[in-house]
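Here's what a typical entry looks like (Cysteine--tRNA ligase):
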Amino acid sequence: MPLSLYNTLSRRKEEFQPVHPPQVGVYLCGPTVYSEAHLGNARGPVVFDVLTRYLRHLGHQVRYVRNITDVGHLESDADAGEDKMEKAARAARIEPMQVAQHYTNRYRQHMLALGCLPPDIEPQASGHIIEQIQVIEEIIANGLAYEVNGSVYFDVPRYNEHERYGKLSNRSIEDQLAGTRANLEGQSEKRSPLDFALWKKAAPEHIMRWPSPWGEGFPGWHLECSAMSRKYLGKLSDIHGGGLDLMFPHHECEIAQSQGSHAHTDEARFWVHNNMITVNGTKMSKSLGNFVLLGDMFQGPTGPLAFGYSPMVVRFFLLQAHYRSPVDVSDDALQAARKGYRKLMNGLRLLDKLAAIEATGEVLETAAQQLLALAAKPAEFLNDDLNTPRALAALFDLLKRFNTLASTPAALAEVGAEALAQAAGTYRTFVQDVLGLRDEPRANAEQLLDLTLGFYSEAKADKAYDKVDQIRAALKGQGIVIKDTKAGVEWAYSEE
């Protein structure tokens, strides 16, 4: 069964075929780095990390691009309000690029902690102004954009004469006009309330500005991804995606820009969107006090959560739901995820024990085939629109079989070493390499050291000098020396 993915553009699952096999170009819309990343910012990277890992597992040569938005994202989708970067910079009284760098660093740290491999390319919008200006010039040359007082707007009604603006989100122009909050009053530069900014003229107080053919200004938020995707993945990439909240207007505008430029494509063949996150059944919102920042979540407690949860538990939790389904965050759900994650990790330890067991007896072909059939299930489910919850369930089924084999030597002998090695390799590969779940040290080194020093003191008091010497030697092997002082037992790093 080949890999199939749900394509938002066609609203159906389609067999995945690369544009230029074996190369695959994947683009994920990254964060606007004006504040700390929250749990919602993590779902897309985790989903796309598994997707890129699995594509590589299937033999594709993947170029994965995840951008950083550090300019041009205004507070309102109607091209109004302050730039989010500038607003954060003014509040902190620092340079916007200081804000961008700080939160970019934090975002990268959090993504690595969650087990997300770094993207192959991580372009920043502010570093691609030239490319964005070129796309604007192409759109103007094609008669689909106009300049007013130093700003440039995309002409949606004109574009809609030949293409359908709204085909990704399945919205008609009439519905958009009826539902839009924008109107021509206060936005007299726009010919239509549906038009969106490609370039905005910088007001005198605006800090972030660049020269352009239309005067000093800054690019529109939607333009950035179109320009950077084309630069690094070509005029038509394989997969482009992000959160469901980006489908309209951001991704809709991206398609319009790519069609309106000299590329004349939908920018990507597959548009893939992950669903949103709720907290205890309610939309996550700062105003409701249920906003969950990643850094706080890892430490805990925070907001609606009474405990902290490690990054790998959070990753497992996110993978328990299909990426197109919403995820509800609660302590109960996260504690259940922690149990499931630890069970998978214990499975990795079990495989080492199984490999060491010497089982003798006749190998039964049916027993071996049954084990290999179980081992084939995770791939089968991931091929079905990256169904990670069913893939996890299949891994638990395989683990259940491993537990039976570990406790029943006769059954282990019937399976045979070859089938066991193949199934064990599949388990390791899918848990670690595809789903990206790694073992996290759960022990506190300081607490373990204090406990060991307690044992040392007890052994010394009991004059059990063989144990005293054994503990001293073991700690010295870890680069730690024990010091007996008048104040009690202390430790220090070995300087030898």
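Confidence is low (pLDDT under 50) at residues 182-186.

More examples are in the samples folder.
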